[in-house]
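Late entry, evening session. Most of the bench is empty. Finally got around to the prediction I had been postponing all week. Sequence below, unchanged from the version circulated by S.P.
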Amino acid sequence: MTIGFRMGGFQKSFRTALIFGALMAGASPALAEAVLHRGNPGEPNSLDPAQISINVESFILKDLFEGLTTFNAAGEAVPGAAESWEISEDGTVYTFKIRDSAKWSNGDPVTAEDFVYSFRRLQDPATASKYANILHVIKNAKAVNDGSLPPEELGVRAAGEKSFEVTLERPTPYFLELLTHSTGLPVHRGNIEKDGAAWNRPGNFISNGPFMLEAHVPNDSLTAAKNPNYWDAAEVKLDKVVFYPVEDQAAAVRRFEAGELDMIYNFSANDLERLRAAHGDRIRATPALNTEYYVFDNRAEPFNDARVRRALSMAIDRDFLAQEIFLGASLPTYAFSPPMAGYKPGQADFAELSQFDREDQAVELMKEAGYGEGAKPLDITIRYNTNPNHERVATAIADMWKTVFGFNVTMSNQDVTSHYAYLQEGGAFQVARAGWVADYGDPENFLTLTITGNPSFNYGKYSNPEYDALIAASYDELDHEKRYEILHEAETLLMRDQPIAPLLHKAELWGLSARVKGFEDNVNNEHPSRFMSVD
């Protein structure tokens, strides 16, 4: 019901006096902008959904774009640009109904053709997306991605202006959650064709999410303003979100405590106890689906020898790392996958040994391989991305390898984007730090990182036909429990070969100012600004 009335002279004068008084007072809650200042642990390497690969970038991109499905504040997959969908009886065809109210930031309607274009662009080898393989469950995606088929053969089509159909290679029970990933985000075709390589710069950028790109000063800040054309704009409480790339964790904490940042992420575990004492439950340590690990370059001696890899992994005291460096905010692990509902991770066979017994066996294995005391010396360099926690872990592991084997161990660090770019491009190394946060809640998301056909994320170039065959067999198994048994067998094999040394499942550390409302802990570590507000 709408109520209307006419203002007389008194009412007009009274309203004018109120507005003038508010302005003279300096600020009015109704007029002040609601701005959330988010600390982000690094500068994004790209703002193209087809080119990003780390959470530093996805935190931003998921504020700017929205896929067919998205995450809510609780980290649950919910309808996004699509308001509903239908699934065929055999589980291989999904038909999405795109919202009539879904629009791009320039006012254009979001259509099924937008998703056809975006999905084809992702798999087109000319795009060179490092993450395209995550959607290889779509029919013909792998063949399109390797150039065997043209993009038009990808299993997607527009069944109407607002009806988008996806055909899969096989039933994929986690497909709806998979679409929340950055690879499922659409891009505006006209924006890319008109502006070319400059399409994702301020002034050109067109997006369909709750926010749109207003400004970006590299290594200083990125400002996203509320998108008035977003279908749910009335429920978005923030006017702007400003992301600050603060890679220096100590600096992030200082800015947070000075009131400059409303949110910080992934601060040093050394600060956890003090910050909790000072700020109470505004300091969060949330268990999440992630794994911190070291990867060995399987292409070069002696790391192409499983005995060397196993020995180095066995000599790492994970309990020390968890308790002394992360102060209990991480749990030691001997498996690559974190525990998930219904799935038992395949652990390394030395998991149940005491650390003393592990070290004794490690020394014997290393001698058998021809290295260590009385044999060949070994010089090792550990690469890691710049971060106090990573530096402390590398320092501790270097000391462990020196103590147990007498090896000379040095360290080398780079900023986060350079570190991962080097690994993804196939750069040579010996031992490198890596971490993986689940894109969706299924062990397959971790275990496919080390298959032979994953050029971007199989950093150490591990290759084992038996392992690859087990992963392939898991896709053909429709029984959920049997599929998990196959994945468990594959992971047990992976942990036998130790091409990677899993170290820890880390809690996600967040600091929130008293202004921030709407933040919810969740294992997916998804915290869209859309659901937050500031006092």
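Two things to note before I forget:
Residues 66-188 form a domain with the Dipeptide-binding Protein; domain 1 fold (CATH 3.90.76.10).
The first strand starts at residue 35 and ends at 40.
Will write this up properly tomorrow.
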